[in-house]
Amino acid sequence: MYKAAAEASFLGSFGLSANYGSDSKYNLTTINEYTTKINRKVLSSKGGDIFILGNHMEAWQTSVKKNPAIIRRAIENLTCFIQADKLPELTDVALSKVRKEINEAINTYVEMNTIRGCMKRNSPSFNWIANLDDGSCVSVQQTTQFGGFIRTCLEDSRMSQ
Question: How far is CA 64 from CA 44, 86, 131, in A?
Fold first, then answer.
């Protein structure tokens, strides 16, 4: 229920805005209700200066020397925003092609930027650059079993040394 409000709050943290039309079931009241319930907000930035809540994202981006990118763990289907009433100059066929091309671009972006690996920090096989858990984490308490047999020998006085 609060997903749109959470998105607006997330964008607001970077000084960006989200526009929800009058046909949307989420309005400013819902967003304000959500933001008043936030007890704690933590943002982590990788590279550049420390990001301070309330500052604009552009100020932080200028402090990053090479290829700034915002990384999120969830990617939503952006094609739902491509609607006939928003782009009246496009035919239904053209609209369908635009959706398909954008969807393919998103899938390519995700595939090219996916790094599979163990994401559990306490695991000995933790991969610090992974952004998708592939189930390769090894349990910390894993025991190794060896096959074979044990034979005990007793010294016999009849054997020469």
Answer: 14, 35, 21
Nearest to 116 by CA among 127, 128, 132, 129: 132
Q: Is residue 118 a contact partner of residue 127, using CB atoms and an 8 Å limit?
A: yes
Q: Is the dihedral of CA 56, 58, 61, 63 positive or negative?
A: negative
Residue 2, token pair as written in the block: 């609060």
Helix (H) or strand (E) holding 111: helix 92-112
The pLDDT confidence band at residue 97, using thresholds 50, 70 and 90, is very high
Q: How many other C-beta atoms can be found within 10 angstroms of the C-beta atom of residue 61?
A: 14
- Backbone torsions φ then ψ of 56, nearest 5 degrees: -80, 145
- The DSSP code for 138 is P
Note the pTM of the prediction, 2 decimals. 0.39
